[in-house]
Model the fold of this input.
Amino acid sequence: MWSYKNINLIIFLSYNIIHIILFLYALQKNKEKNIKLIKKNKTINNNYNTATILENFDKKLNKNYKVFNNEEIKKMDEEYEHKIKKKEQLKLQKKQIKKQEHKNEKKKKNKNLNKKHNQNNTNNSDNSFHNSDNNINQNGNYTNNSDYNIINNNHDNINFIHGNKNKNHDNSFHNNDDVKNGEVKNLVTNEEREKQNVTFEDLNICEEILESIKELGWKKPTEIQREILPHAFLKKDIIGLSETGSGKTACFIIPILQDLKVNKQSFYALVISPTRELCIQISQNFQALGMNLLINICTIYGGVDIVTQSLNLAKKPNVIVSTPGRILDHLNNTKGFNLKNLKYLVFDEADKLLSQDFESSINKLLLILPPNRITFLFSATMTKNVAKLKKACLKNPVKVEVSNKYSTVSTLIETYIFLPLKYKYTYLSSLCFHYQTRNIIIFTNTCATAQKLNFFCRNLGLKSICLHGKLTQNQRLSSLNSFKVNKYNILISTQVGARGLDLQDIKIVINFDICSCKEYIHRVGRTARAGRSGKSITFVTQYDVENFLAIEKQLNKKIDKFTDLDENDVLLYHEQTIEALRLSEIEMKENQELYKKNKFKKKK
Done:
């Protein structure tokens, strides 16, 4: 018979056996799940190529970037030009009204001064025979207060002119010096006035180009244009150094067009620039200035089908505007294309063209091109590489240097903000909201930060668009055109947008990442162009102090501190910025495979 103890033991063993069976069953199920997951991952990894990544990325970018047709781009350009012309006409009308008011005020003042002068002459004639005894004391000191004040005033004026050095000299001696200095000052001002009053007609420019200049609304030539154009018409090699926005492009376009009026030769001039956007802008300037001359211009750059470009070259254009790499490809691969009859070679932004990225292609180009040509070098900064190129390809060049090696325009207000790194985005958001009604360019050092800032600004509800080297050519053009038409008021750009781009309505430039002095000059030059005013704001963190001091040293001036915003006002945006940053980082992580493969890193 079964005892009570045996029954309990059997129950205990059966209970444990059931638990063991359930545990083994669960293990088997987990193994099956893991095997299925591994198989799925293998199939995904086999099919997950870079092509699929790029397709997904393009789809996401197309949400932010509308791809425009060529016709739409032309319409946008026409609208933009029409708006600019309207603004210029309004400015002209306002200036004319102000001039008339100023003239009327001057006439009134002159009438009042003439009346006072006549009254003073009558009073002086009556008091001319006043006794000298009333004026002088026994000790020889002046007693009449009015005479004493007159002498003291004359003495003070003289000391101001001479640097307050010779206070003990006779008054008569000082008065003679004052007259001489006054004559010299008047002579200098007259010379400057004569230079400033020079018009485009005085520079012997042909009527067809003068008509297009009038249509563009250019009134007077800039300083570098006054200096360079006479030498360019004499067909001399030229090195032109001037600040950004001073009108360097017209210095080489006008002489080339004037020669083409006489000799309409194919492949007459080659203009080389470092970026695609600058190529397009230069070709637009050629078309604008040469609208009355019927000249064929061809633009060549990367990111576009090489076959269509070779078909355009087969039409034998008069002027070619190109990047250095693509023109070399055509010279080596396109049949029947050569530049044996080239007359003009222009290097725009020469310091950038002679950097490590383009140096080898420029050297190859110089070996292919004919030696009997006219060469122009234009840049905002003079470097050692530019000096080397001067020796290599220029013959007895004329150097025209309007500015120093490192200098900015006088109409530009340069400021900086010293801030901790963790509050960098909060300061940016507060600045964007502070200048919400104005057009802003934000410069970064890498494509990844430009893309991140674009997501960040859009999450804040701001109208922003970005421009960097990893976008397709169509996307880059559409982003520029949409910014020109004021669809967006914030453009976030890498160094691609820092060179040569003439965007007229920009009031604020923000340097989100600090850069070298040479790049700083080009970035800051996007505002305060052609005599207009502008402001630049540079972010300086605790890690950027040395670089910032180096910029100040090379510019030979101290940059002012930005005082338009208080710290308390800035910190009000902190929570909002943290949320916008969180969302932008999520959007960036969706494309993390691209960042792992260094797709968006800046090229060294």
Notes: Residues 201-401 form a domain with the Rossmann fold fold (CATH 3.40.50.300). The chain has 22 helices and 14 strands.
